[in-house]
Amino acid sequence: MEKRELPRKLHLGCGLVTPSGWVNVDASWNAWLAKYPRLRTLLARAGILPKYLAEISWDPNIVIHDVRKGLPFPSNYFEAIYTSHLLEHLYLSEAKRLLRECFRTLQPGGVLRMVVPDLRAIVAEYLGEQPFGDKPH
Hints:
Blueprint: E1 9-12, E2 23-26, H1 29-34, H2 37-45, H3 51-54, E3 63-64, E4 78-84, H4 92-105, E5 106-115, H5 119-126
Parallel strand pairs: 1-2, 1-4, 2-3, 4-5
């Protein structure tokens, strides 16, 4: 049996967004439950899992992994790493560890793109300095 090589692009905290040609990683309970559809159905019937969550179609090919525990990939492997709205859910020490892991697994010259909230805009909205949803000038 031939061993398949992983794609060279990594998407961390993918949720329901799982582009083809990427290794899509998520550690949420919903992603984990997607691997066990009968359990997900049973939990919904028992009222433990809301029915609407049980009906969401998750990609069964998601790699279930907690990024706080390092990345289980070889060094200098990925040409691109992307994550959106994941970093702000980590403690500072965990975020620093994840950044080190991203740079470890990224090829020289590779691209790391991380999307995080704009805290300044959120605070300005909260303080009434700008209307909600408007971009700062």
